[in-house]
Each structure stands twice: as structure tokens, then as C-alpha cells.
Prior knowledge:
The chain has 410 residues and is an alpha/beta fold.
Amino acid sequence: MPAKRPSAAGPKGEQKRAAEERERAGARHTSHERSKFLRGERIEPTPINGTETTADLIDNAFLAYNAARLREACQLFTRKMLEKDVTIGMTLTGALTPAGLGMAAIIPLIESGFVDWIISTGANLYHDTHFGLGLAMHRGNAQESDVVLREEGVVRIYDIFFDYDVLLSTDAFFRTIIQGPDFQHPMSSAEFHYLCGKYVREREKALGIGQKSLLSAAYSAGVPIYTSSPGDSSIGMNVAALALEGNKCMIDPNLDVNETASIVLTAKRGGGKSGVLICGGGSPKNFMLQTEPQIQEVLGIDEKGHDYFLQITDARPDTGGLSGATPAEAVSWGKIDPDRLPDAVVCYLDSTVALPLLTAYAHARHKRRELRRLYDRRDQMMKLLRDEFARAGNEPVAASKTDDKLPMHR
């Protein structure tokens, strides 16, 4: 039997006839004006001719798929997160600093006041230090034989090559400074990295190489840097080795948990907002986001969650590998304010591609902000946290002897 032709009756049939009549009359197409789903800007980019700035290219041509998510990320960061009342925390995972992104992107973000505090893997901070010590990292071929490289004394991070002595020299630097008197007590990782940054800055000055190190730049700008896994890097390995010799340096994770929560609470109680810029995922992402459950769930302090969420990642939520998952899922934990969920962007892209573009866009579209110097305000922020903890119905908590040893500024 021949197939039945679709009936021309019904709404679709009417639409078809209307389209034919419009075409015969040469009338303008207007049916899209009635739908709330068709109110987005038309996809009608200006042809690329090579004269565009990076920011103009992103606004004009990054219109769909993950290019559009990157445009949304750049615009969220620049138009909302960089408002003067927003405190911005940044997380770093993956081998970003060996690839030069510390110098290219993160230091400029710090110096412009676009990042107020950081949570990083220890590895990023360790490899960042190579540059501050004047040690060389080189571009290489990822297809080279690793057996041959080992025989040649060359270490490889994908297509980044460096001499094995770079590791030995950096280890020697950390072991030397950690034996100094100002390291001989328990401390937060922020204080530890601040002290390290001070010595890296001195080395940079002695070498006359300018500011190459993220640790050094954070020290200069008063940006606290935390690490959620202090033992999971060569820095932590050297701290542990010195402990076998009786060294008293100890990074206290309890201080880190409470100090990071105090940063977020202070941002909110000061009438401002909290924004997170997450590069990758992993432990630093969760450590950044858990500040809100620490405030709400554990300390019993009334709060609602971070206001702005921006993540750059190549992981997927359905495999369990997104490290804290999507912003919507984070709402269920109290990590993200549900009322602010529209101000959340996940860009599924390699951080080594997205971060330089985001940095260029922010500098092109926003003036620098005044440095918050949160490191210098740690005692003040911790006092606020203790006071609110007590008001939430808990016993007042006196400052510990350890806290007395956490100076505002060194």
C-alpha cells in the first residue's frame, strides 16, 4: 500500500500554509518574536579579518558549543565577578605552572586584583618555584623515548622537558629555607607559602630576573595560597624528610579548613559576595567549595552558598570524575546559593587554552581592582568566624597558642 501523506490539518499544517503565503508575498519572518526561547541574540558574526582583539574575537565569534561557554565564562568573570564587592577564590589543578601559565596568566590576575585567594595542588607550587630560582623548563616532543630521556637525565611532563637537576636544586632550596627559625612551628599552608614566597622573591631579586614565580607574586600582593593536600607534592615530601631530623615545621590542615571558611564568611558578612574560579577539579575544587558546608553544616552558621561559580574542566559528571560535579549538584550540598544558579558557568575546555583567553579578556574589559591583601587580615577574619560560631549556640572558642603565632604580616 502506498504510504499515507501527512495531513495538512492542524497547527503544523497552518504553519506550512502561512510560510508559503509569506514567501509569495515577500513578507518579513516574524514568528520567532512570539517565543520566549527565541529572544537570544541572533547568530550573525562579523567576518574575521585579523584585526580583531582577543576580547572582540571572543564576543563576536565564540557563539555556540564550548566556545559559547568560554564566552559566557569570560563575561561572567568580567561583568559580575570582578565587581568590587566580590571576593574571588581561584583553584589550580593539573600541570599549569610548568607550562608557563603562572607567568602568563595567574601572576597578571593576582597583580591586577582579579584573584584574592588561591587553593592549589602542591605540585603546581613546586614547579612554579623553578622559575623563581632561575631554573629552565623547555618545550619538547612528547613522542620521544622516555627510556632515552631517563638515560639523558631529562624529566618529562608531556611536552615539557627539564633537567633532573632542576628537581634536585629546587629540593635543596626548600630544605634550606624550611630549616629557618620562622618555619619552626605548626602553621596553615597559607603562612607556609607566604614564607616560601618571601624567600623566592629574594632569590628573584638576587638573580635580577623580575617576578617569575606565582608564590613570589602572591607574597607581594598579600594573596593567601592554600593547598588541600600538603603532603602530595615534592614540597610536602621535603617537609616530611626534615621532620625525620627533628624539624618542627608542620602544616596544620585544621587551620586551613577554618581560615578558608573565614575568608568566605567575611566576604558575605561585609555585604559582599563570594565567587570561585575553578581551573580543573580535584581536591582543590572541593576544598574551595566545602567552605560553605563548613560554615553552614559543621559550624551551624546561617549562610546560603557561593554567589558565582565558574569552572574550566575537561571532566564529565556521569563518570564520577568531575570532582564535585556540576553547579546544580553543588546546590544540594549548600555549596552554591540556589538563587544565584544562573550565575554559574562550566566550560568544558582545557585550562591551558581557556585561562590565557580569560585573562586577556578580563584585562581588556575591566580595570584593575584594589588588592584585598587577605593574608594580612587572617586574624581579623578568624575572629569573625569564632564570634559567629559562638552566636550559633556553641561554646566560645578561645584563640589557641597556634593562632597567636599567625601574624598579620611578616
